[in-house]
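Q:
Got a chain?
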Amino acid sequence: ASKRVVLLRGPDAHLNAEVAVSGAPVVIAGQQQAEIAPGALGTGLNITSGTVYLRSLTVRNSEQIGVILDSANTTAYLRNITLRNNAKGGLLINAAHFDVRNSTLSQNGPGQTGLATWGGILILSPPATAPNTLQSISAVDNKAPGIACASAVSAQGVLATNNPVSNITDACAFTSCTAGTSGCGAP
């Protein structure tokens, strides 16, 4: 199937968006150091349905959450994404299918969603079927747990360090790789 493409070009920061996709998948790709910096306007990107590919973007300085993948009707593929300094957390995955790779989450949070306090990533109701994975992720220097999960998720090469309370909560059922080893963390 064909894909629709939205290009965001830097270096000037863009504001924010809610994305609901029907039909062909949508690629949202950054060029020339593209950034989304919503400030007080809210969440950087809220993806509520459909298949979306996010590539080569920075989402920073939201007074809310950086990116939300919100619903079982959402499938999102994130590549080379930086989520930094988002006041209520970096990436919230709420029942959505996800494949997040080569991405960095830093200085996010603390966010509070239900009973969960989190900083880098919060995964609520992870889907039982693929895609549902984290690979080559760095969750560092967040202001609450780096990665928090409601239950086990698939992960490989995830570096989580210097996050208060917990780098990765026990429910995620994976541990951080060792910094400096091949394939550990975002490139």
